Amino acid sequence: MLIAGNWKMNLDMSTARQLAGSIRSSLEDPGPVEVVLCAPFVYLDAVYGLVHGSPISVGAQNMHAEDAGAYTGEISASMLRSVGCSHVILGHSERRQYFGETDKSVRDKVVQAVRHGLVPVVCVGELLDERDKGEAEAVVARQVRGALEGVAYPGRGKLVIAYEPVWAIGTGRTASPEQAQAMHAHIRTELSGLFSEGDAARIDILYGGSMKPANADDLLSQPDINGGLIGGASLEAAPFLSIVRAAMRADRP
Ligand code: PGA
Questions:
Q1: 196 vs 142: CA distance, rounded Å
Q2: Active site residue 116
Q3: Pocket of ligand 1 (CB under 6 A)
Q4: Which residue's alpha carbon is at the smallest distance from atom 9 of ligand 1?
Q5: In this structure, which residue's CA is closest to atom 3 in ligand 1?
Q6: How far is the centre of ligand 1, averaged over its atoms, from the C-alpha of 69 (Å)?
Q7: Structural domain tally of the chain?
Q8: Tens-digit pLDDT string for the chain (253 aa)
Q9: What's the confidence (pLDDT) of residue 252?
Q10: Which atom of ligand 1 lies nearest, measured to the CA of 232?
């Protein structure tokens, strides 16, 4: 299980520090649940400094696919590693929608992240219109293959997928546990085709899209839901920690 907070373009340095500090001080031993804070680039170093030595890891929300060079305004995988990041969100629907991210650019970034020892959290998910037309499974399968085709299995815990139906992100609408489970099982089948069935069984597939304390238990108890990518509910310590606790309950046999 993995619970990742996606802070998106929110907070200032002082509130980011407060949030990371209070999550760290209030988090009891999360056991097998991994906790990752995906902060804006400019806060990564500070957040890492605050959580270093605790069970909490730090992730970025995007990166560039090249090693270095004349790419004004961009951030490389090795830069992220040098400030303590272990994870990076790639292909978030907001990047696809507003910044021209494509399956191909996501794939290039996945390859680069893995090469540098960063765990890519690869986001996939259909638009409402695509779901209404009955195309959700095909869209998500295309995104999974597009991001991972030809990528060698990086090893246990080194690749994470996040299913985020675009219609559920920041809208308060959530996929029902059954809808989410069905799509997660479909994603796992796609992953079995790309890697082996055994490897696919061990890849964490997170659900994202208005996951909150009130729905976390139901979502996280589904067999193919292995955690959450949390936007709105990660901007305050209390709801975020309550989702982490739901994951701890769900991880118990
Ligand atoms: P949300 O965002 O929890 O606010 O819906 C999730 C995400 O976009 O990662």
A1: 18
A2: no
A3: 6, 164, 169-170, 208-211, 229-233
A4: 231
A5: 231
A6: 32
A7: 1
A8: 999 999 999 999 999 999 999 999 999 899 999 999 999 999 999 999 999 999 999 999 999 999 999 999 999 999 999 999 999 999 999 999 999 999 999 999 999 999 999 999 999 999 999 999 999 999 999 999 999 999 999 999 999 999 999 999 988 888 899 999 999 999 999 999 999 999 999 999 999 999 999 999 999 999 999 999 999 999 999 999 999 999 999 986 5
A9: 62
A10: 4
CATH number, domain of 36, equals 3.20.20.70
* Structural domain boundaries enclosing 208: 2-250
64 among known catalytic residues: no
* Pocket perturbation via mutation, ligand 1, pick of 2, 3, 6 by most ligand atoms within 8 A of CB: 6
- Please give the number of the atom of ligand 1 that sits closest to the Cα of 93: 8
Beta bridge partners of 122: 90, 161
Q: Enter the pTM of the model.
A: 0.97
* The ligand 1 atom nearest the CA atom of 210: 5
